[in-house]
Amino acid sequence: MIDLNDYYYFVHVVEKRGFTPAAQALNMPKSRLSRHVAKLEERLETKLIQRTSRQFNVTESGKLFYQHARALLDEMEAAEAAIQSQKSALNGRVNISCSVGIAQFAIKDLLIDFLVKHPKIEVMQQVTNQNIDLISSGIDLAIRGHLDTLPDSSIIQRHLTTVSWQLFASPAYLAQSVVPESPYDLFKKKSLKVGWQPATSHWTLENTEGLKTTVPINPQYCSDDMGTLKQAAIEGLGIVSLPAYVCRQEIDTGALVRVLPDWVSGKAQLSLMMPSRKGQPISVRVLADYLLENLDEKIGDT
């Protein structure tokens, strides 16, 4: 198997006219350089350098190999320089799709920061809570939240982060009656629910010890808009289950407090979906990498 490190070190030894000066220039042990050149000679079954304690000579085969190795390294450096130059002036359009909650609370600041860094890239953001077909809709990237594993398909799936859902309420609402100390204390409390269809009106809770329980609820207000539900909770309309990152600011200011802090009401996975790796514009790949590198720190469980 070809090891390009062998080529790199061999070229340096030839150009520095010896193992000692090459090792000094590369700030590495001379023995390591020697091993790389020896491995290269073994693979080629050809002596490339004649070396003794007093002299250093490149063989005719070594000179021929050096010409090709040097050309290869030059091409590699040119390729890297071309990409670096392209990155400094990235352009193109990226079509991205996500839910309302993710748009409002998860990636808003990240997308703005990305566009500031790459002013020639255009981002077209589709915000919908519907599960759309990426290919027929012309979507390059989609962020989807899911509790279970997504079905296998031709769509590329990359894990972004794990997010806990928690229960929140305003201090004023909790002051109206006994503060819940167990899931069973939630039965008679007012509730707010994500999703406008109330058919599955319950919370499945899990505590820090792994104990699970299901609590039926009768929500007064159901909505697809997490921001509206959060505001309703702040106004004292009841207890709401939301992703932890949605309410971080309100927790810090005291506008909301956690209900049953030893329990979570779900753990959702966020995944980045892409139609294909082949032929992707660099603008799409760069935004995908940016989200993969930054979203977990921004909103993930800590």
Describe this structure in a few short sentences.
The chain has eleven helices and 14 strands. With 302 residues, it is of the alpha/beta class.
Structure description:
With 302 residues, the chain is an alpha/beta fold. It has two domains: 4-87, Winged helix-like DNA-binding domain superfamily/Winged helix DNA-binding domain (Arc Repressor Mutant, subunit A); 97-302, 3-Layer(aba) Sandwich (D-Maltodextrin-Binding Protein, domain 2), CATH 3.40.190. 40% of the residues lie in helices and 25% in strands. It contains eleven helices and 14 strands. It has helices at residues 4-16, 19-26, 30-44, 60-87, 100-106, 108-117, 134-137, 171-174, 226-234, 248-253, 282-299, and strands at residues 49-51, 56-58, 92-98, 121-127, 141-146, 156-169, 191-194, 202-207, 212-216, 221-223, 239-243, 257-259, 263-264, 266-274. Strands 3, 4, 5, 6, 7, 10, 11, 12 and 14 form a nine-stranded mixed β-sheet that branches. Strands 9-8-13 form a three-stranded antiparallel β-sheet, with no helix packed on it. A hairpin with a 4-residue loop joins strand 8 and strand 9. The chain starts with a helix and ends with a helix.
